Amino acid sequence: MHAPTGTRSGSESYADGRAAVYEQEVDGFGTVRVLPVDPYADLDVVHTWVGAERAAYWGMTGFTRQQVLETFLHLDSLDTHHAFLAVMDGVPAALFQTYEPGADRVGECYEVAPGDIGVHLLIGPPAAGTGGRPGWSAALLTAFLGYALTGLDRRRAVVEPDARNTKAIERLTRQGFVDAGDIVLPEVDLPEVHLPEKHARLAFLTREAFEASGQVSRPRG
């Protein structure tokens, strides 16, 4: 069994034996490890996070453990969409997704360019003594963007948060994303997935702007 979400038992770290696809030392906060989500091993953490009211814009509040498991098993079967767990100094800190915009409904709302990478982010609840500090969310987002843009060698990050999610939009703007206006993502109704129509805010961050901002900080791996 893993230690409960947001805690560590002694020197034990969450998913200590699993290989990270990317590691980055974020000044003032510690080391962020980006791990591919294991739908089974990470189910306790993911189900707790996506089911919380604070994650309402992810559209999974009220999902059972089985529904969350099936959702992430489906995601794990795709070549175009990937889910990751960020672990900050041994503590689960955030859920992160990347996707190919051309294989996603957002691709119907703007002209997809070579090198684009879509990203979704869910910050986990603050861990005792770590989360909740000023700059905590920005530190995690910095590591995610380091992986998406430099680790994956992409030219531009694309985001489309719910247009009502002003907190997320403000966070992304502070991070350097450029607002491209409101869009309406069409409904997806397939046997394996259903997504309702979504009114969203489109925004972009180029790799050049990300690197020029000084956010890149000692990547490892």
What does this protein structure show overall?
The protein is α+β, with helices and mostly antiparallel strands. It is built from five helices and eleven strands; from the N terminus they run ββααβββαβαββββαβ. The protein has helices at 43-50, 65-76, 136-151, 166-174, 207-212; strands at residues 22-26, 30-36, 81-88, 91-99, 116-123, 156-159, 178-185, 188-189, 194-195, 198-206, 219-220. The strands form two sheets. Strands 7-10-6-5-4-3-2-1-11 form a nine-stranded mixed beta sheet, with helices on both faces. Strands 8-9 form a two-stranded antiparallel sheet. β1 (22-26) and β2 (30-36) form a beta hairpin.
Order of helices and strands: EEHHEEEHEHEEEEHE
Averaged pLDDT = 88
- Shape type: globular
Q: Count of DSSP helices?
A: 5
Poorly predicted parts: 1-11
Beta strands, count? 11
Structural class of the helices, strands and pairings?
alpha+beta
What's the gyration radius in Å? 17 Å
The biggest beta sheet is recorded as: 9 strands, mixed
Our measurement of the CA-to-CA distance between the termini, rounded to an integer number of angstroms, reads 28 Å
Percent strand equals 25-35%
Q: Largest beta sheet: what is the strand line-up?
A: 7-10-6-5-4-3-2-1-11
Helix content estimate: 10-25%
